[in-house]
Amino acid sequence: MHFFGGIEVFILTGMAYDHYVAICKPLHYIVIMSRQKCDAMIGASCAGGFLHSFGQFLLAIFLPYCGPNEIDHYFCDVYPLLKLACTDTRKIGFLVIANSGLMGTVIFVVLLISYAVILSTVRSYSIENRHKALSTCSSHITVVVLFFAPLLFIYIRPATTLPEDKVFALFYTIIAPMLNPLIFTLRNMEMKNAIKKVWGSIMRSKGNRLRDFPAFHHPTS
């Protein structure tokens, strides 16, 4: 969970940089966002996700467990796991905050700064171009809010578990990743055109079947 979650966090950061280049330096976009740089960003995201998750793994694997083996959560997160440890876990909880909470907070602040720069840049654009720029960023901002708001609620506080944690964890583990394809593909013009073509062909085929179907005549008495 933390491996793929860490990858998504870093990919969202790379997408913010991509939007900045596309909006603020459109003429240089192809040169700056080359295929090699995109591949490097994906590789760096995977490496960052691995380092983040490996740190969580080391924190949990060496803890002594001598009590119950059930946690009040739907996946094996570190905070619920600390409740099963037979030792003082305050230092471990602080390290979890430094790992997950600090990383999430720093990246969230970086994303806010990037969009502040973008918004300050588009102020000088025409209304039409400003609308296009904001429309380009809207899908990314939606995903960032759905992902980071519950994540920060859980990981920037001391190592305690609340009944609401499972509900908030649903957003960054299930809901946000599930909505990602829908949110981002609907912003893609090629995808929109493809959906329109498929929908148009479906409607035409239904109309043809209705025309070919013989009319039903009620028998006269």
Explain the overall architecture.
The protein has helices spanning 2-24, 29-32, 35-61, 78-82, 90-122, 127-155, 165-185, 189-212. The model has no long low-confidence stretch (mean pLDDT 82). Helices cover 75% and strands 0% of the residues. With 221 residues, the chain is mainly alpha-helical. The N and C termini lie far apart (70 Å). GO terms for molecular function: G protein-coupled receptor activity; olfactory receptor activity. Belongs to the G-protein coupled receptor 1 family. It comes from Sciurus carolinensis. Residues 1-184 form the G-protein coupled receptors family 1 profile domain.
Distance from N terminus to C terminus (CA atoms, Å) equals 70 Å
Global shape = globular
> What structural class do the secondary elements suggest?
mainly alpha
Low-confidence stretches: none
**What is the percent of helical residues?**
over 70%
Average pLDDT across residues? 82
Note the run of SSEs as H and E: HHHHHHHH
**Main sheet, how many strands, which sense, barrel?**
none
Radius of gyration: 24 Å
Count helical runs: 8
Proportion of residues in extended strands: under 5%
Number of strands: 0
Tags for this model:
8 helices
Task: Give the SSE layout.
Layout: H1 2-24, H2 29-32, H3 35-61, H4 78-82, H5 90-122, H6 127-155, H7 165-185, H8 189-212
Helix pairs in contact: 1-3, 1-5, 1-6, 3-5, 5-6, 6-7
